[in-house]
Amino acid sequence: MRWGVDCEIGVNSWHSVSMKLTILGCSGSLAAPGNPASSYVISVPGETDVVMDFGPGALAAMQERFDPAAAHVIFSHLHADHCSDIPSLLVWRRYHPTAPASERHRMIGPSYAPLHFGRMSADHPDDVDDFSDTFDFTAWRTGQPEHLSGLTITPFDVIHPAQESHALRVEDESGKVLTFSGDSCLTPTLIDAARGADLFLCEAAWGASSEDKPEGMHMSGADAGRIAREAGVKTLVLVHIQPWTDPESVAEAASTEFDGEIVLGIAGAIFEV
To answer: Residue 270: beta bridge partners?
Structure first.
């Protein structure tokens, strides 16, 4: 078990790895010092990067390692802590003086994303910014895979207040699987989404225990460990831990349910799947 802050997980060199995950940020519910809110980059050699969620602070973190104008974007759901840097990304892609987007990239998410983001980036209260000049949008259909950058990405319905919230199961051409819980309370659907995953990014916003917490919103470390055990995952990465929570207590709670490898997600961590 590793409650770790290691920046690289996996035994293979990048040249032999099919899929790599970089955490831009994984703070729960809001950005924290040195840790943007939910935002990840999935990289496959020879393919366009795929950004998964884009919360506050994500664009600044992305500039350190990636080209913000050269990536597809997918979303688990549209709460602000998972998507609020999108208007800034649109500015970068359209108006950067030397490196704007050279092509339209794909965006996949809840069906209302064009309206939601269009209002966020509009000039007037009643306007909707049409971003189809820079993104080609597709809405998730539950259980229906989308193919992107050599990856097969399948959305699973989860339980969370945000409309059309999903867990995302990402499989590369070699059969390696990464699952992201998105935000959800404990639900059997997550077991299906994470079944046999090599890497399971699971939210644990409620800390060590969900007892006395609001229902239908989030999970605890113990809940995440239970899903990991029942799904038979290889490595559990705990994310979306709120800044006021002791992360070690979350990992400790997860270990009471799951005896596999447990890692505390941190900004800048890289996982070779």
So the answer is: 8, 22
Residue 1 lies in a domain: no
CATH of the domain at 187: 3.60.15.10
pLDDT band at residue 5 under the 50/70/90 scheme: very low
Residue 170 lies in a domain: yes
DSSP letter string over 108-122? EE-TTHHHHHHHHT-
pTM, rounded to two decimals: 0.94
Q: Let me know if residue 2 belongs to a domain.
A: no
For residue 252, which of 233, 231, 224 has the smallest C-alpha distance?
224
What lies within 8 Å, CB to CB, of 142 at 6+ separation is: 155, 156, 157, 166
> Are 182 and 166 spatial neighbours (Cβ–Cβ below 8 Å)?
yes
Encode pLDDT of 67-88 as tens digits.
Answer: 999 999 999 999 999 999 999 9
Question: What is the total count of domains within the chain?
Answer: 1
